[in-house]
Design brief:
Blueprint lengths: L23 E7 L4 E6 L5 E5 L12 E3 L8 E2 L1 E5 L7 H17 L1 H10 L18 H11 L7 H8 L3 H14 L7 H6 L2
Parallel strand pairs: 4-5
Antiparallel strand pairs: 1-2, 1-4, 2-3, 3-6
């Protein structure tokens, strides 16, 4: 069962920034000036980055490192967080697919939700937070999950006839747009 207690916001003076633990981000929008609007891989924070303006373009989903250079990512400087409302229309359009690709590339996060999610109240299960999942579908998913859960996203998708990463990405994108949604899976699952 997911712990539904909200986490303290670590942005008070003297406390560490939530971006301190982040090392990689993916492009949502890349401008020729080298400015990137992106989303971090670990905590799904919206950020601004600066890459070299060398004339190359970087498509949405391109992976950037802002700590240590790696073989599978380009290098960029982290400028700081950004707000959902400040994203370009290109970044808005790409957000869902990039979040879905992060979940697909890091299946432990996605599977953790589906394997551990429990009842939120006597009348509502955490699965019902996902778009298109009603009470009967949630009950069916819990029965299919049993005690062992799923080992892979494709096994989950096949047994429940859903696109697990897509459903979770939809909910997470809604929460990025409206951080006051409750319960907030970003804080309870991703950033905990």
């Amino acid at each position: 069962m997911i712990d539904m207690q909200p986490r303290a916001n670590p942005t008070s003076p003297g406390e560490p920034s939530p971006l301190d633990d982040e090392t990689h981000a993916r492009v949502l929008d890349y401008q020729n000036s080298g400015l990137i609007q992106g989303i971090t891989e670990k905590g799904l924070y919206l950020v601004k980055l600066r890459a070299s303006a060398d004339g190359r373009t970087h498509s949405p989903g391109t992976r950037f490192s802002f700590r240590e250079p790696t073989e599978d990512s380009e290098q960029a400087a982290l400028l700081g967080p950004t707000r959902h409302r400040d994203l370009s229309s290109m970044a808005h359009n790409e957000l869902h697919e990039v979040v879905k690709s992060i979940l697909t590339d890091n299946p432990d996060v996605c599977l953790s939700f589906y394997n551990r999610a429990g009842s939120l109240t006597l009348k509502m299960h955490a699965f019902q937070l996902l778009p298109g999942i009603g009470k009967s579908k949630a009950i069916s998913m819990v029965e299919i999950r049993g005690r062992t859960g799923w080992e892979t996203i494709p096994a989950l998708d096949e047994s429940c006839q859903i696109d697990a990463a897509d459903l979770l990405a939809n909910r997470l994108c809604q929460e990025l747009e409206d951080p006051h949604m409750t319960p907030n899976l970003l804080d309870l699952l991703i950033r905990a």
